[in-house]
Write a structure and sequence with these properties.
Elements lengths: L1 H20 L6 H19 L9 H43 L11
């Protein structure tokens, strides 16, 4: 049961990472829901679990999931920074288009 849950979360994270890297649309609401459900399931399954009692297959999947999560965090962070930069550019363009230059140090041409 734990192994199946790990595999589901890994598949979700991998799909999101690959879609972002390929510049494909991502339904963030669905992805976030799947991640939340997987994390809740993992929390319930690991409550009271002795880490020393984890079998080799599960340990391998945990290590691989950790690596996939780290990569996903990098890619999502990169996309968030890009969104912030685009937002700043659009905001500044709107300000510039609405301003007549009266209160700026640079008069409009």
């Amino acid at each position: 049961m734990l192994l199946a849950s790990l595999k589901r979360l890994e598949a979700t994270v991998t799909a999101e990472t690959e879609a972002l890297l390929a510049h494909q649309p991502v339904d963030q609401e669905t992805v976030n829901l799947r991640k939340s459900q997987s994390l809740l399931e993992l929390t319930r399954l690991t409550r009271g679990l002795d880490p020393a009692g984890i079998d080799a297959a599960t340990a391998i999947h945990l290590a691989r999931l950790r690596d996939r999560l780290a990569r996903n965090q990098q890619v999502v962070g990169l996309h968030l920074r890009a969104v912030e930069e685009i937002s700043e550019i659009v905001t500044q363009a709107i300000r510039d288009s609405e301003s007549d230059g009266t209160y700026s140090g640079h008069p409009r041409r």
